[in-house]
C-alpha cells in the first residue's frame, strides 16, 4: 500500500515539475520575442559577413567572387608587399602617437570639469560637441585648415605672425601626428563623459580624509582619483588602441595615404585592395591580419593587468 502511494506521489511530483517548466517557458516567450529580432540582425549583419570574409580570404577572387581556393597565398602576397610592411609600421606609429597626444587629454579635462563649481553642463556640451560632427566632415574641416598653400587657415595665421608657411600634411614627418590631432579633437569628448561618470562615483569621504591629512590636489589625484578610476582607464586604453588601429576616414579623406604612403593605415590598405584594385581576397586577408594583431595585443594587456592586480 505504501509503495503504491509513493509511486503516485513521485508521479505527481514529476508532473508538477514538468508543468512548472512549461509555465516558465511560456513566461519567457515575450522576452524571446524581444531578443530574436536583435539576435537575427546581429547574426545576419555581423557574424555572417565576418565568417564569410574570413573564408573568402583563402580564395583567389575575381572582383568580389571566389574563383578557386588558394590557401594562404593572399596572406603571403599581402605580407611580402613593401607597402604593407610600411603600412604596418605606420599603424603602430598611429597607436604610439595617439597614446602620446590623445590618451591623457580626456583624463585631464575630465578632472578639471569635475573640480568645477559652476558651468559643468556647458563644458560637458563643449567637449562633446566635436563628437557629433561626422568623421568625414571633421576630416575635411581640418584638411582645409592644414592646406599647405597661402590660403590655408594655419598658414594665414603664420603669415600674420611673420613666420614661414608649413607644408603640414605634405610633410611626411608631421602627417601622422596631425591626423592623430584631428582624431583626438573629434573623439575625446565621449571619453571625457565616461571619465566624468566614473569620477562622480568616487567617494567624497576619501578626498575629505586626505584633505584633513594635509594632502594637496596633486596627491589626491595621484593616490585617490587615479586608483579609483584605473579600471575604466584600462578599458578605454584598449578601446582607443583598437579604434586607432582601424583608422580609415582621416587618412582616406585628408591624404589618401600620402605623401609616399607615410600615412597609409591597415584599414586604408584593405579599402584600396577592395575598392581600387578589386582584389577582395587580399583585402579580407589584411582585415584578418589586423584582427589577429588586435586579439594578441588585447590578450597580452589583460594578462599583464591580471598579473599586476594579483600581485
UniProtKB/TrEMBL annotation:
Highest taxon listed in the record's lineage: Bacteria
What are the GO cellular component annotations? plasma membrane
Q: How does it sit in the membrane?
A: Multi-pass membrane protein
Which keywords does the record carry? Cell membrane, Membrane, Transmembrane, Transmembrane helix, Transport
- Identify the main location: membrane
Task: Answer whether the UniProt record assigns the keyword Cell membrane to this protein.
Answer: yes
Q: Which residues form a coiled coil?
A: none
Q: Which InterPro entries match?
A: ABC_transporter_permease (IPR051393), MetI-like (IPR000515), MetI-like_sf (IPR035906)
Q: Tell me what this protein is called.
A: Sugar ABC transporter permease
Amino acid at each position: 500500500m505504501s509503495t503504491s502511494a509513493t509511486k503516485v506521489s513521485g508521479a505527481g511530483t514529476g508532473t508538477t515539475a514538468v508543468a512548472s517548466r512549461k509555465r516558465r517557458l511560456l513566461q519567457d516567450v515575450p522576452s524571446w520575442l524581444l531578443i530574436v529580432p536583435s539576435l537575427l540582425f546581429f547574426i545576419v549583419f555581423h557574424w555572417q559577413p565576418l565568417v564569410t570574409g574570413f573564408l573568402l580570404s583563402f580564395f583567389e577572387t575575381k572582383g568580389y567572387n571566389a574563383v578557386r581556393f588558394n590557401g594562404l597565398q593572399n596572406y603571403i602576397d599581402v605580407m611580402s608587399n613593401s607597402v604593407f610592411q610600411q603600412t604596418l609600421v605606420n599603424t603602430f606609429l598611429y597607436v604610439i602617437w595617439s597614446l602620446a597626444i590623445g590618451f591623457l587629454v580626456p583624463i585631464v579635462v575630465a578632472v578639471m570639469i569635475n573640480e568645477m563649481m559652476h558651468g559643468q553642463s556647458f563644458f560637458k556640451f563643449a567637449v562633446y560637441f566635436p563628437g557629433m560632427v561626422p568623421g568625414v566632415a571633421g576630416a575635411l574641416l581640418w584638411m582645409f585648415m592644414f592646406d599647405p598653400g597661402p590660403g590655408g587657415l594655419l598658414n594665414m595665421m603664420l603669415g600674420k605672425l611673420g613666420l614661414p608657411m608649413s607644408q603640414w600634411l605634405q610633410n611626411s614627418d608631421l602627417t601622422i601626428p596631425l591626423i592623430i590631432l584631428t582624431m583626438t579633437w573629434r573623439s575625446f569628448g565621449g571619453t571625457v563623459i565616461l571619465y566624468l561618470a566614473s569620477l562622480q562615483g568616487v567617494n567624497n569621504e576619501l578626498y575629505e580624509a586626505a584633505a584633513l591629512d594635509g594632502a594637496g590636489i596633486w596627491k589626491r589625484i595621484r593616490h585617490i582619483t587615479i586608483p579609483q578610476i584605473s579600471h575604466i582607464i584600462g578599458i578605454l586604453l584598449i578601446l582607443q588602441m583598437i579604434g586607432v588601429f582601424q583608422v580609415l576616414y582621416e587618412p582616406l579623406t585628408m591624404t589618401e595615404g600620402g605623401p609616399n604612403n607615410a600615412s597609409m593605415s591597415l584599414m586604408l590598405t584593405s579599402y584600396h585592395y577592395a575598392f581600387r584594385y578589386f582584389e577582395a581576397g587580399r583585402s579580407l586577408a589584411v582585415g584578418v591580419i589586423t584582427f589577429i594583431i588586435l586579439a594578441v595585443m588585447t590578450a597580452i594587456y589583460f594578462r599583464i593587468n591580471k598579473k599586476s592586480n594579483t600581485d
